[in-house]
Structures are given as structure tokens and as C-alpha cells.
Amino acid sequence: NQGLFIYHCAMANVSTHNSHGQYGLILVEPKEGLSKVDKEFYVVQGELYTMGEIGKEGLTVFDSNALIDGHANYVTFNGKIETSPRMQAKVGEKIRIYVGNGGVNLISSFHVIGEIFDKVHIEGGDMINKNVQTTLIPAGGAAIVEFKVDVPGTFILVDHSIFRAFNKGALGMLKV
To answer: Which residues of the chain have pLDDT under 70?
Structure first.
């Protein structure tokens, strides 16, 4: 099947393995390919369940009770907390972001502050929404979002369950 899919470890205990980052995205393009864009990025949201304070440096121990209770200490994009832009584009470029949600517990409300998605491939499939501000991505799901950047600036990618972005790390940066 064509589309964007999350893959993950399927060994017992799946939730523990996934909460350790054993997941990723796979894109199966249609035979004719996808429409041309200027830049493509892959972003996967994930959850970390640890003991101790948020921001603690050094070795951090996994907290299986927090996982079972669904209380993630961190919610990250691509496994880290963003402190400077890693994605860059130029004004006028058309951007495509392949977005996944490795889970294991939380639904993502994916949003780019200051942008409207021209097109969203809902759950990474054939159904397309247009002119969307925020798109829901279930745990274990994906979406493809496209938009044109019309002005310069640093655009913040967030899980719009906003406490996850600014308190737990679910943010990324696109510098235009």
C-alpha cells in the first residue's frame, strides 16, 4: 500500500521498546511519485518516560510506572529537545513534512506556528484535507503536510497540546 507509515519493534513488551525509540517512518510512494516540492523533512514525535526531574542531566532511568500511567516526562521530535533550528528553507519554497507519532500513549496535534497547511494527507494515506491549521496524528500513525513559506522567520513546529511543546520538549524549528 502506498502512504506514510510508522514501523516499530513488535517484541514483547512493545510499549517499553517503543518508549525507548524503537520506531520510525517508512514512505511508500505511488508509482508516479509525489508532486514536486523544494524541501522535505521527516519528523517523528515520541515519548520518554524517566525517573527524576525534567531537564536532569546525565544518566536517566526508565520509569515503567510512568509508562503504564501514561505520564511522559518528555515528548520530543526526533528524540531530542530542540534548541536551535535544524531545518532550513528559503522564502517561497514549498515544504513537505512527513510526520509520524511513535506514541506510545499520546495523540499528536501537529501544528506549525504561523503557517496553514495547504495540503494534509490524513493518516499518511490518500484522503487529503486542504487549508488545515492543526492535524491530529494518532499514536502509531502518520500524516504528510505541505505548505509554502511566504515570509522569513523561525517557524516553530509543535504538538499543539501546547504544554507538551514548551514544558516537555515537543517542538522543532524551521528557519526561513
So the answer is: none
